[in-house]
Amino acid sequence: SHFMVRVECELPNNRLDKFVGLMATESLDPADDEEEIQYSLDNDKILLRGMALKNTKWAVGFVIFTGHHTKLMMNSGKPQLKRTNIDKLLNKIVYYILGLLLSLCV
After folding, report:
1. Under a CB-based contact definition with an 8 Å cutoff, are residues 22 and 8 in contact?
2. Sheet holding 36-41, edge to edge
3. CA–CA separation, 45 vs 88, rounded Å?
4. pLDDT at 4 over 90
5. Which tens digit of pLDDT belongs to each residue from 33-78?
6. pLDDT tens for residues 7-37?
7. Which residues contact 67 (CB under 8 A, 6 or more apart)?
8. 67: phi > 0 → left, psi -120 to 50 → alpha, else beta; which?
9. What is the chain's Cα-based Rg?
């Protein structure tokens, strides 16, 4: 016995609120005339990294994107450098003193 599944989905992107895909599988019932059964995949049917599944005895799943192609990795940008007001003021004072010293040397 074998089980074949085909998944078609959008390319990796950084939109966490949208996922569009299609899962097609062969019918397990020999009396069924349909060759494939298709299921839509959307945000209600996916789990992103760090999510937890509760009140469920079992689940079947497969990995769509890994590594830097995951939605969370693509959505995370470079962290911004946080500087305090005192740090900004001290930098201005240092530049002022440096400019004063250079003008005195010339």
Report:
1. yes
2. 5-9, 21-26, 36-41
3. 47
4. no
5. 667 888 898 888 888 777 888 898 888 788 887 777 777 777 777 7
6. 898 888 888 788 889 988 887 666 666 678 8
7. 73
8. left
9. 27
Residues 6 or more apart whose CB falls under 8 angstroms from that of 75 comprise 14, 15, 16
Position 10: which residue type? E
The first and second tokens of residue 102, run together, are: 């250079």
Closest to 22 measured CA to CA, from 2, 3, 45, 1: 45
Are 70 and 12 contacting, i.e. CB atoms less than 8 angstroms apart?
yes
Residue count (the chain) = 106
Regarding pTM above 0.85, the answer is no
Residues 6-28 as b or e (16 or more Cβ within 10 Å = b): eeeeeeeeeeeeebeeebeeeee
**Which one-letter amino acid corresponds to residue 86?**
I
